[in-house]
């Protein structure tokens, strides 16, 4: 149920961020004769800036970040310091296929100065039948000595991989979103200009309001 509700709230908030402002706007449109052209251009510029920030952030999070994470993971497995740790808590999470499951663990270990500490760790167990990460088991971690990488620690048996098919779909999705935004500018202009150019732009136009709501709900900055 947790997974269902997380998706439900994503869809729910996206409805209020995109279709809802459009429904309100196209049912309350006003004439253009009293619209200040300079103010309209200001709203247009604001909308362009907001959408550029959003699509750049989505590009970094959806496309560039996986490659950065893989690079960091490869470096961590190659150059990190190997440390013994003991699993003091282990919980099963979401199951992938029949032979993979997410694990949420709390492990105890000694830091670089020998002080006992605990760390929380999440991973995908590709061999759950071996019970490698159950409570009480000893595992080995690779830790970044500078503690600056993301992630800065992982199990020594971890593997870094990027699925080409999934990445291709992500790139296509990002391009589709960019195309839809550009197409909506074209659509809005030809539908609403009435010979007045961009004077139809107002603060509650979807081209302005949608990115503002996306920022406010953190979907624009956090969706991945």
From TrEMBL:
This is Uncharacterized protein. Keywords: Membrane, Transmembrane, Transmembrane helix. The keyword Transmembrane applies. It comes from Chitinophaga oryzae. The chain crosses the membrane at residues 7-26, 38-59, 167-187, 203-223.
